[in-house]
Amino acid sequence: MTISTTLQEFLDERDVNYDVVGHPRAVSASRTAEAAHVPGDELTKGVLVEDAGHYMLAVLPATRRLQFGKLHYMLGEHVGLATEEEVRSVFPDCEHGAVPALGSAWGLEVLLDESLAAQGRVYVEGGDHVSLIRLDGPAFRNLLGHCRYGDFSRHI
C-alpha cells in the first residue's frame, strides 16, 4: 500500500492531517467504497476532462455520475473526457483508474461538484487501487485552492 509520491509530497508540504486507509483491491469508485467500508457520498472520484489540451479535473462523489451537459453549461464551453493515454501522462505516478481528486497536486484546475461543498469528511484515491486518503472536508476543500463549484452530476 503506497500512495502516489506526488500526492504524499503535496500533503506533507502543506502539513495536512490525513490518514491512509487500506482496503482490498478494487477498480471502480463504488467497489472501492464497498471494499473500504466508507460511505460512497464521502469517496471522491476525479474525472480528467480536456479542451484542446487544457486539462481540468472534475471531482464528484462515487455515488454520482458526471453529466457533461451540465458541465458544458457551467463552463460555457464543451469539454471531453481525456483519453487513457492523456490520463497516464498527467498522472504518471498513479495506477490506471486511481486518479486522486486533489488535482491541485498536479497543477490542474479543479471543478468541484456542489454535492461535496459541505461534506464533513472525504476520502480520496491514493493513486493506487488499495489505499485511500481520509481528510476532513474543510482541509480537502482548502487543498483544492481556487476551484470552481457547480452542479454537474446526478446520483446513480
Describe what is shown at a glance.
The chain is of the alpha+beta class. The chain has helices at 5-13, 29-36, 68-75, 84-90, 137-143, and strands at residues 19-22, 44-51, 54-61, 64-66, 80-81, 109-113, 121-125, 131-136, 148-150, 153-155.
Would you give the CATH topology? YbaK protein
Low-confidence stretches: none
Overall pLDDT confidence: 96
CATH homologous superfamily label = YbaK/aminoacyl-tRNA synthetase-associated domain
Basic shape: globular
What structural category arises from helix and sheet content?
alpha+beta
| Gyration radius, in Å | 14 Å
- Can you summarize the main beta sheet? 5 strands, mixed
Order of the strands making up the biggest sheet: 5-2-3-6-9
In whole angstroms, the N-to-C terminal distance is 29 Å
Q: What is the domain total for the residues?
A: 1
Query: Would you list the SSEs in sequence order as H and E?
Result: HEHEEEHEHEEEHEE
CATH architecture: Alpha-Beta Complex
β content, as a range?
Answer: 25-35%
Q: Percent helix among the residues?
A: 25-40%
**Topology, number of strands:** 10
